[in-house]
Amino acid sequence: MSDVLPRGRGVRKLRSAVGYTLLVLVALLFMSPLIFMVGTSLKAPSEIFSTPPSLFGSTLEWGNYSEVFSYAPFTRYLVNGVVVATSGTLVTLAVSALSGYAFSRLRWRGRTATFTVFLATMMLPQEVIIVPAFVLMRELGWVNTYQALIVPWAFTALGAFLLRQFFLTVPQELEDAARIDGLGRLGTFFRIMLPLARPTLAVLAVFTFITYWNSFLWPLVIVNDVSTLGTIPLGLQQFFGQQGTQWHLIMAASVISMLPSTVLLIALQRYLVRGIVTSGLGGR
User: What are the entry keywords (predicted)?
Assistant: First the structure.
């Protein structure tokens, strides 16, 4: 019996070692494009397409990152991206929380049918509604404005669905107790329901911020002056010019553009797993 136990422990340790090794290999496989991008951003232009290919050049050209800001108004692109993504995320969170609460807790005629139609809009690709959206923005006089970049995509069914799924998991007795203590409908929402929904709001915030941050087609349509209202995806296009493609600057700019989303993920990571489970995305 004493020989069986150490042998069993050895087998478990071997399996764990093999499992972790496979995970590391898979992680390196998925990270290889990112590693290649960082390496290319630190190369001299003459070494990017060298033969045989190398991960890094003969010297690390850290000056490529400062050159990004002198080659194009990249600071402006970053500021515009942060303003649009942050504002759009805040508006989406507010609208989604209110609509999710209304669809889950308030009793009104046609609630189920309205929610079904609202949810069906998720099946419409952006390309289908981009022309009507542009016509509406033009009639409102919002072409080439911040509000045109933010407002049309802030009222999404995904956010309402996520918050509705969470609010349905909150016991009704908790809300009844708040009402007995004298809280009204809005007081219950802001003081009881909304603090409980922080993990789900964190998940929605990450999804929404990344969507706004990486959006290319809509800014390309609605923005006339890229130098003043261009966001990061539009700004990256400025490195493709008549003088050739500045690959080292494109890679450096891409690395810089990843930083805000990365910081947001790190800041909200402790809420993400809980939020995915409670919002109905965990496969329940």
Answer: Cell membrane, Membrane, Transmembrane, Transmembrane helix, Transport
State the pLDDT confidence band at 284, using cuts at 50, 70 and 90: very low
Spatial CA neighbour of 72 closest among 252, 266, 236, 267: 236
Q: Which residues pair with 240 in a beta bridge?
A: 245
Q: Please tell me the distance from the alpha carbon of residue 100 to that of residue 161, in angstroms, as a whole number.
A: 6
pLDDT at 47: 85
Position 279 scores a pLDDT of 53
Q: Are 123 and 161 in contact (CB under 8 A)?
A: no
| Cα–Cα dist 157/173, whole Å | 27
Q: Using alpha carbons only, what angle is made at residue 84 by residues 97 and 271, rounded to the nearest 5 degrees?
A: 45
Instruction: Confirm if 104 and 194 have CB atoms less than 8 A apart.
Output: no
- Mean pLDDT (whole number) for 223-244: 83
DSSP, collapsed to helix, strand or coil, labels residue 244 as strand
In the structure encoding, which two tokens stand for residue 251, read together?
Answer: 């890679």
Q: With beta carbons less than 8 A apart as the criterion, state whether 209 and 261 touch.
A: yes
What is the helix (H) or strand (E) element at residue 240, kind and residue range?
strand 240-241
Q: Which residue has the tokens 């050895």?
A: 10
Which residues are CB-contacts of 244 (< 8 A; sequence separation ≥ 6)?
none
